[in-house]
Amino acid sequence: LQQMRGEWFNAFSSCIAFCNSSPDRAGEVEAFQHLLLRLTSMLYGAALSDVSEMTDDSMEFVNPAGISQDSLTFLRSTNVRAEIVLQWIQKSIHEASGKEIIKVAPPILSRVYNQLGNGIVMLNNAQKLNSFPVPFPVAQMIFFSLVLHWMLTAIVCAAGCETMYEAFFQSFLVVFIYWSVHYVGEELEQPFGDDPNDLPIAHMQA
Questions:
Q1: Structure pTM?
Q2: 3-class DSSP state for residue 162?
Q3: Which pLDDT does position 4 carry in this prediction?
Q4: How many other C-beta atoms lie within 10 A of the C-beta of residue 121?
Q5: Pick from 97, 46, 39, 43: which is nearest to 68 by CA?
Q6: Rounded distance between C-alpha atoms, residue 206 and residue 197, angstroms
């Protein structure tokens, strides 16, 4: 997610740098920059909302002035919000380039589109964690293997150790380590929720 943010920030900053510096176009340039800022904020927030598994996945945006109410209503009704906002940004950049609000050679401007595309690919990679969890049979096999290991470890330690305390310490330590790794894996499997160890999704947007 941080790489995604970096790609989109680079694309945004490049568009700001490529804007026409002519005083006659200052008003058009400023309007485009404000629109681009609002859309970029909306893009990152929509991406975090799409990947989030939180109970309340609403995100804060920069004031969406200049974006029609119909567009915002449509955006709320879809489940691919990041992809839609990305299309709005690309269309805005293309129109600004045609009007020479962005004044740069097309091969250089293509880098902006490439960075926007890289960001959405990284978002799709993050969404794989939600869409493709560990298969249920694998999770059950791991659980029952740990239970079997727990029982066998106690038996082996009881048979191989000289004292009761030594058997207890060795069996407890081995079983504790394996179960700890298991529960750590469960926490890492879904890092986009409301649990204490999950990523601070809402804070990342703020």
A1: 0.71
A2: coil
A3: 85
A4: 12
A5: 39
A6: 19
